[in-house]
Design a protein that fits this description.
The structure is a single chain. The chain has 289 residues and is of the alpha/beta class. A hairpin with a 2-residue loop joins strand 11 and strand 12. The protein contains seven helices and 14 strands. The protein is globular. Helix 2 packs parallel to helix 6. Strands 1, 2, 3, 4, 7, 8, 9, 10, 11, 12, 13 and 14 form a twelve-stranded mixed beta sheet that branches. Strands 5-6 form a two-stranded antiparallel sheet.
Length: 289
């Protein structure tokens, strides 16, 4: 039995951080980072049956073209993903009354919709990027046993290419769900490797008043190539989502609307339009599968 200190429940029986009970979530879930983006997605729903928020975790569940979908804001960073994925899994795969794992496990379909800047000149602003691989630079997932789901060859190649300081922890590489990739992909979507950092400033190469461990890391990442897969963008959630989903038996895919291109120095003239188009595209793909 899972102890009360390990799986914390609120007085109403909901999981501690997300404030959700099993009946509140759909099996098709969209992740966003910003709580204000939840309603930018659910505004397209035919109806909303449930809404709640605790801290940065906002959830709305409703119906879009006959498909029941939940939209959840995760906040920023791999540490928040650790909370969200474990509590979502508990909702479907642990009996909250007996505190025992269920014999028959449920696989959720999780799609992250975000915005990002491209690292490659051939990926223009206003385009969509699908993360074929999540490359974690944050070290969070190393708290788990990940050898069965991680891609050692990519990790080794990245470590060698960047002369990675192993004192920061070994990077981890996790593939997206092939099932969701086939549902969402199109000729208009670029694919590549998404790097996930554990912070916004130093971990992503930004220098304010503090020197960073490797000031050339971003340039090395721009030039990294593994079997024609290049690092398309840098953010703070994808690899953690992929890793925990793979370990827990869920399907995960990360999509980004590209609103800036660092290589060409360009920025979208209408970034909100790009995000809305990605939202509409994703919802329609989910609705008919």
């Amino acid at each position: 039995m899972i102890q009360a200190s390990e799986l914390i429940l609120n007085p109403d029986g909901s999981v501690y951080h997300l404030n959700l009970r099993p009946e509140h979530i759909a099996h098709d879930i969209i992740f966003v980072g910003d709580q204000n983006r939840v309603e930018k997605i659910t505004q397209f729903f035919d109806s909303i049956e449930y809404s709640t928020q605790k801290r940065e975790f906002k959830t709305q569940t409703g119906i879009y073209k006959g498909k029941r979908i939940s939209v959840i804001s995760t906040g920023i960073g791999p540490d928040n993903i650790d909370i969200v994925l474990n509590e979502l899994d508990a909702l479907v795969n642990i009996d909250l009354q007996t505190r025992l794992p269920k014999k028959e496990l449920t696989s959720l379909n999780i799609i992250r919709i975000g915005t990002s800047g491209s690292l490659q000149k051939n990926i223009p602003v206003d385009s969509f990027v699908m993360s074929k691989i999540g490359l974690g630079l944050d070290n969070m997932l190393r708290s788990y046993l990940i050898d069965e789901v991680s891609e050692d060859a990519i990790e080794d190649a990245f470590i060698m290419h960047t002369n990675w300081d192993i004192r920061k922890g070994r990077p981890y590489a996790i593939a997206c769900s092939e099932k969701l990739e086939k549902i969402i992909e199109s000729d208009k979507i670029f694919k590549g490797i998404t790097a996930t950092a554990g912070g916004f400033y130093g971990p992503q190469g930004r220098v304010l008043r503090l020197n960073i461990q490797d000031e050339d890391l971003n340039n090395k990442m721009d030039n990294f190539d593994f079997n024609d897969n290049r690092i398309t963008n840098l953010e703070m959630e994808t690899a953690a989502i992929y890793g925990l989903s793979a370990l827990l038996g869920h399907n995960a895919l990360s999509l980004n609307a590209i609103i800036a291109n660092r290589a060409s120095g360009t920025f979208s003239e209408d970034p909100y339009k790009a995000v809305d188009e990605l939202i509409a595209y994703t919802l329609n793909k989910l609705a008919y599968h």
